[in-house]
Amino acid sequence: MRKLLIAVLVLVAILAAVFWYFSTPDIPRASLEAKYATPPSQFTTVDWVSATPGSADASTGARVHYRDRGAKDAPVLMLLHGSNASLFTWERWSKTLSDRFRVISVDLPGHGLTGAVPNGDYSQEGMVRFVDAFATKLGLTKFALAGNSMGGGVAARYAEEHPDRLTALILVDAAGMPVKMGDKIPLAFQIARWPVVNQLVLHITPRSLAEEGLNKAIIHKEVITPAMIDSYWDFARMSGTRQATLDRFASPWDTYVRDHVRAITAPTLILWGAQDGLIPVEAAHAFNKAIPGSKLIVYPKTGHILMEEVATQSAADVRAFLTEQAPH
C-alpha cells in the first residue's frame, strides 16, 4: 500500500510539473495595449444589448479597439476579421484603400485588444448588435461592410438585418452558407469544441497552435512571419480571451445567414481563395447563386485569408467595386 501511495504521489508530482512547464499564463490587457496599440489605434466604449438568453441585459461598457484611416467625409468601409484573428489582418487593405475611402477596422468581441466584454455575448447575433452599436457610436449612417470568415458571416447577417445602413457588402471566404467543411480545420478550432479537453486551453495554449492554424489557412506561406504568429498567440492569451473563445465555440450552430440570404439587397462582392481548406469555394458559389446581382472573384492558389495572401490584387478589386457603387 505504501509503495502504491508513493507511486501515486510521484505520478501526481510529474503531472503537476508537466502542467507547470507547458502552462501559458494570461497576458495583462495593459501589456498588450502597450505593444500593439500604436497609431492609428484608438479605443472607444460601446454598449449594446446582449442577444444571449440569461446574460446581462446590456454591457456595462466594452472597451473597443479600432483603427480609422482616411478622410472623415470619404465613403466608409468597415472591416470585420475572422475567428481568432484581429483587425491587424486588414492592415494592407486599410493602408491601400484609405486614399479613397475612410477605412475602419475593429476588433470584435472576444478578439484582439477588445477581448472579453462585460455582457459575455460572443454569438453571431450578438456581434451583429455590436457592429450596429459601434457604427452608431462613430456616427456612421451609411457604410460598406466587409468581413472574412466568421466576420463574413456577421457582415452577411448585418446586411440581412440592416439593409438601410449598407452601401455595399463584401464577403471574403465568409461563413454562413452550409457546405461540407474543408479538410484543413485548425487544431485550435477542433480542441475548442471538445468537451472537457477544451478546458486545458484555458491554461495551456502553445505558440505551435497559432502557427499550425495559420499554415493550414494560408497557401502563400511567405506571408506567415514570426511577428504574425506572435500576434495571434499574444491576443489568444490576453486576460479573459481564452474563456471568451470557449464560450463562443460553445454557441450552437446558427443557420440565420443561410435562411435569410435572399434578403440581402446591398450590392455584393464575393471574394474567395480557390484552395480555401476551411470554407471551400463551393460556399462562394452558394452565396453568389443566392444573392441577386452579386459578383464573384475566385483567386487561384490562394487560401482562407486572401486579404493577406493576395493583398494587392484583392484590394484593387475592392477599390474598383466600391468606386462603381459610389463614383462620387
Which term fits the overall shape?
A: globular
Mean pLDDT: 89
Q: Which structural class fits the helix and strand makeup?
A: alpha/beta
Query: How many DSSP helices?
Result: 13
Give, in order, the helices and strands. HHEEEHEHEHEHHHHHEHEHH
What are the low-pLDDT stretches, counting only 5+ consecutive residues below 50? 7-22
Oligomer: single chain
Which band does the percent of strand residues land in? 15-25%
- Round the Cα radius of gyration to an integer and report it: 20 Å
State the distance separating the first and last CA atoms. Answer: 85 Å
Largest sheet data: 8 strands, mixed
Q: Please report the total strand number as a whole number.
A: 8
Strand order of the largest sheet: 1-2-4-3-5-6-7-8
Approximately how much helix is present in the residues? Answer: 40-55%
What is the element layout, followed by pairings?
Elements: H1 2-22, H2 29-36, E1 41-46, E2 62-69, E3 76-80, H3 91-97, E4 102-106, H4 124-137, E5 143-149, H5 150-161, E6 166-174, H6 187-192, H7 207-217, H8 226-236, H9 241-249, H10 256-260, E7 268-273, H11 282-290, E8 295-299, H12 306-309, H13 311-325
Parallel strand pairs: 3-4, 3-5, 5-6, 6-7, 7-8
Antiparallel strand pairs: 1-2, 2-4
Helix pairs in contact: 3-13, 4-5, 7-8
